[in-house]
Amino acid sequence: MNKPLDTHELEAAAPQPAIPTRKRKMLFVGLAGTVALVGAAVSVYQTTVAARHVQTDNAYVDAESAQVTALTNGPVAEVRVVDTQAVNKGDVLVVLDDADRRLELQQAESALGQIERRVRGYQANNGALSGQTAAREADILRAKAELQRAQVEFDRRKPLAGTGAVSGEEVTSYKTALEAAQAAYAQAQGNLTAAQGAHAANDALISGVPLDQNPEVTAARAHVEQARVALERTVVRAPVDGVVTRRTVQVGQMVQPGTPLMTVVPVQQAYVSANFKEVQLGKVRAGQRAELKSDLYGGKVVYRGRVVGFSGGTGAAMAIVPAQNATGNWIKVVQRLPVRIAIDPQDLAAHPLKVGLSMDVDIDVSR
Asked: Could you give the domains of the chain?
């Protein structure tokens, strides 16, 4: 005998009504409309927004860091700064022992004094030698007159030597006097030549210029200036405003010209290096505006920026070990090109950044 089914069993066993065809069509139409609306929204976004902007999160804060090096040699006497310390241009960073540089300056100044005195002696001798030359010229005039007189006296008596009017002894005496006058005249000429040579040599030493333009004096003064500069360089000053980093110098260290001491990073002049994919750069131009966000402050702080320029090569090409794409096993990879973006100074002053911090960059390429 069959057991009667209860109400629940009867409902479960009853056939379910099928979804009406009209309702299914409406669902398909709604789904298609939704897809169409999403596609249209994406298309509108790509046309009105995305096409006008290029973005990247591969960007970092950078700055033109100033490396501080020693410009003269000597032991380090003082180090007045530490890493992370803010400094202004001209602040004293390091002081070297200046004992050797002071001695060199004193020696150069002493040498300059000696040379100036010597040149003044040349100038004084020049006047004396001019007087000597004039005296030698006067001696020649006297010797010439004496020679002419002796020549006349000898010529007057020589024809009379055979007549007995003049004795042979007298003729010999006047001949001797003529020869002596000739010798004196030749000596006077030699003295004049020597005096003129001495005057010319002395004049060449002073070159006819005043003391401060004399070559020996100017060379000595250059040595004094060089020694003075070397002394001033024993005090190492900050070349720019910024923050001290990578300080390696220590008190007592012996440094040579070119020895790295520390680096000063001018964070007030920081900029952003944004590495865009090459496919993003078709519309990017220098001068376009950009918005930047830092991971340090988050999205609540937006920096205003401007595209300054582009690197001369991609990161791969400028790497220490660049890729060798001609080896045969080449795989094409989308390259990135560094783009330099200047940050508005007011925004940077309000929210300071440090070199190396990550940034998000959005460039408006519609203009």
From this structure: 55-97+234-320+331-367 (2.40.50.100), 101-229 (1.10.287)
